[in-house]
Amino acid sequence: MTQTVAKWVEVAGLSKEKDLATQQECFFEERDEFMEAYKRKDSVEMMDAVADMTFVKDVIAALLNGEDEDDVLDMDMRVYVLSAQAGFKELKVKLACQEVIRSNFTKFCVSPEDAGLSVREYASIGVQAESVERDGYWAIVSLADQEDDKGKKYPKGKILKGIHYEPPQLKAILEAPSY
């Protein structure tokens, strides 16, 4: 799984110098989302937060490239504890993590035409973006700290969702029989 996330980091153009702090913030935002979902007893949102925390932890591990392993282990333990708190089986968490990775790859476009359509789609809601090709994928990237016409924030450098983005299908994983 971490090789696949390392590939995602490469295509996204993330680097330790410019993206590590943001990814660390994302990890704790996902933890907060888990706690809110836990209070509501929303198992789909809890699983989404656990899988997203795992993805972000793996992104951080890829950015650190073997350095500061204690930080990554600490994040891993936090994810484990929250998964256990929610009562999730290990296999379901692994399947959810694979589904989040699959979904995150659909943020990227696979043709310059789709990338152009995605950039124009963001322009139509007032968001300046560009497409950046890396290794046969096109990442759509926010060009500035900005808001769309509905007030949604898009920080500079954020990887935006391409036109063929597919959200993770976690409900089906949670509803599948456990073995």
List descriptors:
mainly alpha, 5 strands, 7 helices, 3-stranded antiparallel sheet, globular, 179 residues, two-stranded antiparallel sheet
Write the layout of secondary structure elements.
Blueprint lengths: L1 H11 L3 H25 L2 H22 L4 H18 L3 H16 L6 H12 L5 E6 L2 E6 L3 E2 L5 E2 L4 E2 L9 H6 L4
SSE topology string: HHHHHHEEEEEH
- Strand proportion: 5-15%
Q: Low-confidence parts, pLDDT < 50 over ≥5 residues? A: none
Number of helices: 7
Q: Which structural class fits the helix and strand makeup?
A: mainly alpha
Q: How many domains in all? A: 2
Distance between the termini: 22 Å
Task: Describe the structure in your own words.
The structure is a single chain. The two termini are about 20 Å apart. This protein is mainly alpha-helical and about 180 residues long. About 60% of the residues lie in helices and about 10% in strands. The chain folds into two domains: about 1-105, no CATH class; about 110-160, no CATH class. A hairpin with a 2-residue loop joins strand 1 (about 130-135) and strand 2 (about 135-140). The protein has helices spanning about 1-10, 15-40, 45-65, 70-85, 90-105, 110-125, 170-175; strands at about 130-135, 135-140, 145, 155, 160. The chain has a three-stranded antiparallel sheet with strand order 1-2-5. Strands 3-4 form a two-stranded antiparallel ribbon. The protein has seven helices and five strands, in the order ααααααβββββα. The radius of gyration is 17 Å and the shape is globular.
